[in-house]
Amino acid sequence: MPHPDQRYIQALRENNPKLIQEINQNFRPAIIALCKKNSGNHQEGEDLFQEALLAIWRRVREQGIELHVPFGAYLYRVAKNKWINILKQKARREVTFEDLSGYEGVEGDSEALERLELIERQEALIWERFKELSDRCQEILKGAWSQTFSSMESMADSLGVSYGYLRKKKSECTARLMKLVKESHSFQHLKNG
Predict the structure, then answer these.
(1) Is 41 left (phi over 0), alpha (psi -120 to 50) or beta?
(2) Are 38 and 31 in contact (CB under 8 A)?
(3) Domain limits at 35?
(4) Backbone phi and psi for residue 35, each to the nearest 5 degrees, phi listed first
(5) 35 in a structural domain
(6) For the segment 82-115, what is each residue's pLDDT rounded down to a tens digit?
(7) Both 126 and 99 in a single domain?
(8) Within its chain, how far is the Cα of 51 from the centroid?
(9) Are residues 89 and 13 in the same domain?
(10) Are 133 and 140 in contact (CB under 8 A)?
């Protein structure tokens, strides 16, 4: 069953201005504080909030999201990961995150946050291995996962291949991706906890 904050996901999907404004009011200060506590400034925090929200919006549009944790916790985790990447790119050192302290309503659901973090690590591993697939496999899997095509038949027509070929190729590409994921050192860590 989705978290009650699923309404924010729906608001992003539908571009609901009232709820998007509510997202800005309720969650922007925590993301700015995250940034400022970790080698950033107010403007970088504003930018980080926008980037994290945009990343969630893209995911909502491309794949859909069903929240099982508070929206604020999900947004915070996305922003935190983005900020870590930004700091790595800037080669800043000595970054310490205060594991969600000071973020109202998040600390109490540590089990849900751990599940969310595990899911994010699994997704990151899949996308990392996805890049190792051939361009054709990437094209087929992206097409199959997106909502661009109404059916596999329409996707086959668009790609100029037969439906039978597309089904077989999609199956082969999926199997190849799963093999790459399972052979990964990171997969063993995720599997073993």
Answers:
(1) beta
(2) no
(3) 6-108
(4) -65, -45
(5) yes
(6) 888 777 776 544 444 554 444 444 443 455 556 6
(7) no
(8) 12
(9) yes
(10) no
Q: Which residue has the tokens 């999926």?
A: 174
Angle at the Cα of 47 (from 46 to 49), degrees rounded to 5?
65
Structure tokens at 62: 């491309």
Tokens describing residue 124:
């990151």
Mean pLDDT across the stretch 28-56? 89
User: If you average pLDDT over every residue of the chain, what do you get?
Assistant: 80
Domain total in the chain: 2
CATH number at residue 56: 1.10.1740
Q: Angle at which helices 110-130 and 163-183 pack, to 10 degrees?
A: 120
158 is a domain residue: yes
Residue with tokens 């970088």: 44
93 and 141 housed in the same domain: no
- For residue range 155-170, list pLDDT tens digits in order: 888 888 998 999 999 9
